[in-house]
Amino acid sequence: MQKFKIKRFNELSLDELYSILFLRSEVFVVEQNCAYLDIDKKDSKAIHVLGYINDDLASYCRMFNAGDYFEDSSIGRVVVSPKYRSLKLGHELMKVAIDSLKTTYNQKSITISAQEYLVKFYETHGFVQTSESYLEDDIPHIEMKRKIEDE
């Protein structure tokens, strides 16, 4: 089971920021063979969700308030370290992120830009497809939305 830290950009330590950027680069640039600028100047607006196994960053995503990325609140840069993928940590990460969005931003819906091959994964978390396939950094993506239930 992961232990989570949820932090604003200015609360991240240098070690945490380095671990985040390393993991994102390892997966989104190297593994997916996609030469793009991951550091997009949006991290400072995001809330960062870091999932740890022991002291190792195992999973990560970032969350935005409505209007900071999409019209709705959003979750992006969802990533699980290759060495932990067999543990299905992405599901736990998404649950924590969705629950955190409910309490942090008090929004009614979430929009994501999902890599097409992960549509089924996001559907298990209540997201539905709201667009046709499009290319983002030469990778097929689908826009998906999810309502946030009142509790």
TrEMBL record:
Q: Does the keyword Transferase apply?
A: yes
Q: What is its EC number?
A: 2.3.1.-
**Domain called N-acetyltransferase: residue spans:** 7-149
Q: What CDD domains does this protein map onto?
A: NAT_SF
* Entry-linked InterPro entries: Acyl_CoA_acyltransferase, GNAT_dom
Q: Isomerase: present as a keyword of the record?
A: no
Q: Which UniProt keywords apply?
A: Acyltransferase, Transferase
| Xref: Pfam families | Acetyltransf_10
Q: Which GO terms describe its molecular function?
A: acyltransferase activity
What is this protein's name? Answer: GNAT family N-acetyltransferase
What is the species of this protein?
A: Flavobacterium oreochromis
